[in-house]
Amino acid sequence: QPSIKFQGCKTKLFPLFNRKMEILEDQSATNGEPLLAHLSSFSWLPHTSNPPHQTPPPPRRSPDMKQLHKSPTHAPSPAHAPASKISKPARPGPRTWVGYLLREQRLLFVLLGALIATSFFLLRPYLFSLSASNPTERSPIFNFAAHSSDPRGVPAGFRPPPRRVVVTGGAGFVGSHLVDRLLEQGDSVIVVDNFFTGRKENVAHHLRNPRFELLRHDVVEPILLEVDRIYHLACPASPVHYKYNPIKTIKTNVMGTLNMLGLAKRIGARFLLTSTSEVYGDPLEHPQKETYWGHVNPIGVRSCYDEGKRTAETLTMDYHRGGGVAVRIARIFNTYGPRMCLDDGRVVSNFVAQALRKHPMTVYGDGKQTRSFQYVSDLVAGLMALMESEHIGPFNLGNPGEFTMLELAEVVKETIDPMSTIEFKPNTADDPHMRKPDITKAKQLLGWEPKVSLKEGLPLMVTDFRKRILDE
């Protein structure tokens, strides 16, 4: 047969075909055999069959041809090559089964997940009640009180995780300082205040803070919030204010506390009530312990505040015993510091404002009544320690240092103006003769005690009052 030239069949798209054609052409020229005899290796090409009377022997393979046949990219094997063994299908592994289940059994997985979630939420109250030492309160994942020799329960330097906190009365004197500390430790804070005694100026420096919210609302009306902690401070605390509107005062103490306790029960939040040393009335026990039931006039001019706070404590304990609400009760003694109202009516603010305005300091009665005075930062530290403790209370939070009214007037004179004068007036009705806290319980269980003395804290208050009085 005449030799066939395939020079025109070469193409750049098939480099392997080109290489093999070059090798076959060289072999045909060397052996004198027609090139068509070697084309049987290209089973995918149409070619002319050999005459039936002549069967050419298979061509000898050069090393290059052997290399091509060994290459994984060579063309399909010739017809005379032995048939390869049929490989058995691979047995499906675990990944294949997982893929099949995820692909074909999606509905089964959805139903199984829904069943697990439903079971968890149904059994959750029982799991918490079994694991908690106190059946009315959820136990934390790790209880520091149970694993620490420190009587306070929380190791030094431990900072609780950030929480969402509401402070009723948060624009007031004590509330605004509490808000400062809560934001400082990383909590998100919602202030609820009707601004009856609170001032926006007390919290204005937080208005640009994304973790701070200010709501104008009266706690006498219900409110729905989603929080972890409730500090209930809302109530007029000055004799001037609660004598001005006694009905509003007792409604705030009773209805406001009732609404906030109801909120705590609905959302599972911890609730702290700021009560007062006024629940002891004109005490017959001195100093006053938390176990003392008090000596209160229920129909006096101060009873709207005194009896209102006693009722608030009763409601708080009833919600704890009957509703399972986690509660804390703090009985606050006389507190002073920056941001007090200039016309607050309490003795420290009265003396400071009168001395700065060059007015005589008013002493009611003979001036031998005694009070104890704590700086506001000490009180805030006590409230936060109580809230994060595992103890319900009540706890006395005050400074056991005791001063007569005349001694206090002398300290104010030394701090502001030694030339200030004192004016005596008749004593007011139901004014307690003695007031001094026994803080043994707070020391032992909370690890708390006041640190700022009157002579250290009073100048800080005077600086704030002087600036505000000059701006009048």
UniProtKB/TrEMBL annotation:
TM stretches of this protein: 107-127
Cross-referenced CDD domains: UGD_SDR_e
GO molecular function terms noted in the UniProt entry: NAD+ binding; UDP-glucuronate decarboxylase activity
A GO cellular component entry from the record: Golgi cisterna membrane
Keywords in alphabetical order: Decarboxylase, Golgi apparatus, Lyase, Membrane, NAD, Transmembrane, Transmembrane helix
Top-level taxon in the UniProt lineage: Eukaryota
Gene3D superfamilies: NAD(P)-binding Rossmann-like Domain
Region spans: Disordered: 46-90
EC number: 4.1.1.35
Biological process according to GO: D-xylose metabolic process; UDP-D-xylose biosynthetic process
Membrane topology note: Single-pass type II membrane protein
Compartments it resides in: Golgi apparatus, Golgi stack membrane
Required cofactor(s): NAD(+)
Pathway: Nucleotide-sugar biosynthesis; UDP-alpha-D-xylose biosynthesis; UDP-alpha-D-xylose from UDP-alpha-D-glucuronate: step 1/1
Principal cellular location given in the protein's record: Golgi
Ranges of Low complexity composition bias in the record: 73-90
All residue ranges annotated as the NAD(P)-binding domain in the record: 167-459
Top enzyme category: lyase
Function: Catalyzes the NAD-dependent decarboxylation of UDP-glucuronic acid to UDP-xylose. Necessary for the biosynthesis of the core tetrasaccharide in glycosaminoglycan biosynthesis.
Family classification: Belongs to the NAD(P)-dependent epimerase/dehydratase family. UDP-glucuronic acid decarboxylase subfamily.
Protein name: UDP-glucuronate decarboxylase
Source organism of this protein record: Aegilops tauschii subsp. strangulata (Goatgrass)
